[in-house]
Amino acid sequence: MGFELRRIVTGHNDEGRSVVTIDGPPGRDIGTLHEIWNTDGPVLDSRDSSDRGAERTNLSPVAGGSNFRWFVVAPTDGSLSDDELERTVAERFAEMGAAHERPDTSRHPAMHKTETIDYIILLSGRVTLLLDDEERDLKPFDVVVQRGTNHAWINKGTEPALLCAILIDAKML
Questions:
Q1: What three-state secondary structure class fits 58?
Q2: What angle do CA 52, 70, 130 make, to 5 degrees?
Q3: Residue 127's closest CA among 163, 154, 165?
């Protein structure tokens, strides 16, 4: 992958003093997703030393929750046929519990839509954000506020792109 991913998680000890509870790599890797942390609602116990990044999560957070992760978009090299690409992408989304989050893949097999507000930062590399009728090229440190729209990430370059994403469950109107 070429990236050294480190996360530092803080909390409190039994005396109420602030401490580092985790200092190391991502909690769980799901292919190109590298989990940092997740929440399952608005209540937080900072004395809990369990690793919420190591728990199995889906693409979308649970109701009232959030997911925080790094993800890598590999360069598109054209080595897969359209059918192979569709099959590979469908398997990846199913693995993330997100097969149902692909309502219209007519523009690209990776198109998907979640009931979330997402804050996404491109850290390195180059990607293109595909929407139903538009696209935008991103460079490092560009930020996307993704508001529940059908989209995909495409890497037309030669190097992997690293992005950081915070997905927060939301009711879309």
A1: coil
A2: 130
A3: 154
Backbone angles phi, psi at 100, to 5 degrees: -75, -5
3-class secondary-structure state, position 121: strand
Domains of the chain: 1-173 (2.60.120.10)
Pair of tokens at residue 56: 């199995």
CB atoms within 10 A of CB 34: 22
CA distance 97 to 127: 24
Both ends of the chain: CA-CA distance in Å?
Answer: 38
Question: Which 3 state secondary structure label does DSSP give 64?
Answer: coil
- CA proximity to 52, closest of 21, 96, 92, 93: 21
- What counts of helices (H) and strands (E) characterise the chain? 1, 11
pLDDT digits (tens, 9 = 90+) for 119-155: 999 999 999 999 999 999 999 999 999 999 999 999 9
Tokens of 8: 């530092």
Residue 6 tokens read as 């480190």
Where would I find the H helices in the chain? 82-95
Q: What pTM does this model have?
A: 0.89
